[in-house]
Amino acid sequence: MNKTFKKINATDVEQLMLIENLCHSHPWNEKTFRSCIGGRYFGFSLAVNQTLVGFYIGEYVAGEVTLMDICVAPEHQGNSYGRFLIEHFFKQAKELGGEKAFLEVRAKNFSALMMYINQGFSEIGRRTGYYPSEIGYEDAIVMKKKL
């Protein structure tokens, strides 16, 4: 397996939006995605054997990093690509000087929750009714990991 991580830039947005839209019931729009490139944001895509399989976007501020978005295309899920992406996120976070990592995840996204727990995140809070869902709203679980 040939894994390639590539720093995300503005020319990647159109292709990454295809994955974003397939992965989320309420995806970011293109304007939001573009606003998370550069400055305090960092992001990388992952290609396996030259096929784009996923990406992540992180934010670094004053020793803290936040995993803003992480997606693996549905047809590539279940192959450890999410783990590869999050491990790369940790590596980049540490290079930037990150000491703590945070994220929010939908309470009903059990596969993501298990991946985050397996990567050392623990729940530190909940945001009631944070995410829009098919019917009403869904809680966000706020998680933290010391790097």
Structural notes for this entry:
The chain is α+β, with helices and mostly antiparallel strands. The protein is built from four helices and seven strands; from the N terminus they run βααβββαβαββ. It starts with a strand and ends with a strand. The chain has a single domain (3-146), classed as Gcn5-related N-acetyltransferase (GNAT) (Aminopeptidase, 3-Layer(aba) Sandwich), CATH 3.40.630.30. The chain has a seven-stranded mixed beta sheet with strand order 1-2-3-4-5-7-6.
CATH fold group:
Aminopeptidase
Please count the helical segments: 4
Q: Judging by the overall fold, what is the CATH architecture?
A: 3-Layer(aba) Sandwich
Strand content: 35-45%
User: Quick one: biggest sheet?
Assistant: 7 strands, mixed
Structural category: alpha+beta
Q: Which series of helices and strands comes N to C?
A: EHHEEEHEHEE
Average pLDDT for all residues: 96
For the record, give the distance between the C-alpha atoms at the N and C termini, rounded to a whole number.
Answer: 28 Å
**CATH homologous superfamily label:** Gcn5-related N-acetyltransferase (GNAT)
Radius of gyration: 15 Å
Uncertain runs: none
Output the keywords.
147 residues, alpha+beta, Aminopeptidase, seven-stranded mixed sheet, globular
Task: Set down the secondary structure blueprint.
Blueprint: E1 3-7, H1 13-23, H2 30-35, E2 41-48, E3 51-61, E4 64-72, H3 81-96, E5 100-106, H4 110-118, E6 122-132, E7 137-146
Parallel strand pairs: 4-5
Antiparallel strand pairs: 1-2, 2-3, 3-4, 5-7, 6-7
